[in-house]
From TrEMBL:
Matching PANTHER family: GLYCOSYLTRANSFERASE (PTHR43630:SF2), POLY-BETA-1,6-N-ACETYL-D-GLUCOSAMINE SYNTHASE (PTHR43630)
Residue ranges occupied by any Glycosyltransferase 2-like domain in the UniProt entry: 10-149
GO molecular function: glycosyltransferase activity
SMART domains: TPR (SM00028)
Protein name: Glycosyltransferase
Highest taxon in the source lineage: Bacteria
Keywords annotated in UniProt: Glycosyltransferase, Transferase
Length: 369
């Protein structure tokens, strides 16, 4: 990258009742940015008091059930070269903080958007279990805007810079039903949601445990023309999960196989399809799909969909251990358990598997107490 000057960054956030997590977020980023803009949408706890420790740029915003409008309002107060956005339950680990410091020194001013990883969940070793990517830092002069009242998105074009810098997500709040309420207001007003909002509506219904209604909306979404195939893949996966909850195991497998209409086999879908056959005790087919998962490469860096990372690491090996154990092929079971242990060396279940298989094979292992 060509360095013209050290870039400056405005952090812009919208918050409401975030006293449990806001300090963690701002502690991890306050010294990396040149100004902090906090837009409060109606907090009744200590959120604004905590924010005041880091900035005096705190603005009130009357909530209108429209996330994009609130985010655009926060962006309107930015004055620096670039704008970084975070949610209050996001934060940067130290390794990522160091990368941001370097980024500020080196970023080419021709870059319009810096893409970062978004780590959504973690295992006991701190390794990410699931991730996606987001346009996280955007050039202020381009005046990029947010769209959509719920599940808002930042519409960006121009020169992208892909990085391995990660924003870590540590959710504290449970689902409050706010998003579902907003979408149901749209349904009541307009008769139905349309386009991509069908997908979001289905997600909210599923999160609320309304699986039959969610399945109907996922089906509506999948039956319309494809605009962004990653949404269709996620819809297939979540539709399958709804059918599982409804006891429709035949349709569960069908929904997973529908993913192959939109994309070549991916490890996460291979594992889910394999699990369907494992549950049927059809071990031959299960082994086929778990082995196929091991052959898949992770999608490229420009991939923005959610990835269940364990399907590209230890999960297929664990499931193959189970399959081969059930078919009596203990040497193969042992081999795959060892490969899973390479990722999770202290996992109690894997260590127990190891001891049991060693004992069965006469390798001198003993079953742990």
């Amino acid at each position: 990258m060509r360095r013209d000057k050290v870039i400056t960054i405005s952090l812009c956030m919208i918050v409401r009742d975030e006293e449990e997590v806001l300090a963690r977020c701002l502690d991890s980023v306050h010294d990396l940015v040149d100004e902090i803009v906090i837009v409060d949408t109606g907090s009744t706890d200590r959120t604004k008091d905590i924010a005041a420790r880091y900035t005096d740029r705190i603005y009130d915003y009357e909530w209108t059930d429209h996330f994009a409008d609130a985010r655009n309002y926060s962006f309107s107060f930015a004055t620096q070269d670039y704008v970084l956005w975070l949610d209050a339950d996001d934060y940067f680990l130290e390794k990522d903080r160091l990368k941001i410091k370097q980024l500020k020194q080196e970023l080419d001013s021709a870059v319009d958007s810096v893409v970062m990883e978004y780590h959504l969940a973690f295992d006991g070793y701190g390794n990410p279990l699931a991730m996606s990517r987001r346009n996280r830092i955007v050039k202020r002069s381009r005046q990029f805007r947010w769209y959509n009242p719920v599940h808002e998105y930042l519409l960006v074009d121009g020169n992208y810079y892909l990085t391995d810098i990660a924003v870590s997500h540590g959710r504290v709040h449970e689902n409050t039903g706010r998003n579902l309420r907003i979408l149901e207001q749209i349904v009541e007003r307009d008769g139905e949601v349309t386009g991509r909002d069908i997908f979001y509506y289905a997600n909210e219904l599923s999160d609320a445990g309304r699986f039959s209604e969610a399945a109907e909306q996922y089906r509506r979404f999948l039956d319309q023309p494809v605009e962004y195939f990653e949404d269709n893949l996620t819809a297939c996966a979540r539709l399958s999960a709804c059918y599982h909850q409804l006891g429709r195991f035949d349709l569960k497998l069908t929904a997973l196989l529908e993913s192959l209409v939109h994309e070549l086999p991916r490890a996460d879908f291979c594992c889910s399809i394999g699990q369907c056959f494992l549950e049927k005790e059809d071990f031959g087919k299960a082994i086929y799909w778990f082995k196929l998962a091991l052959e898949q490469e992770r999608p490229p860096d420009h991939h923005f969909g959610v990835l269940n990372l364990i399907c590209w690491t230890w999960l297929p090996h664990l499931q193959l251990c189970i399959c081969y154990g059930m078919t009596g092929e203990l040497e193969l079971a042992y081999e795959h358990n060892e490969k899973a242990l390479a990722y999770l060396p202290d996992d109690a279940n894997l260590l127990q598997n190891k001891a049991k298989i060693e004992q069965a094979l006469g390798l001198g292992g003993a079953e742990p107490e």
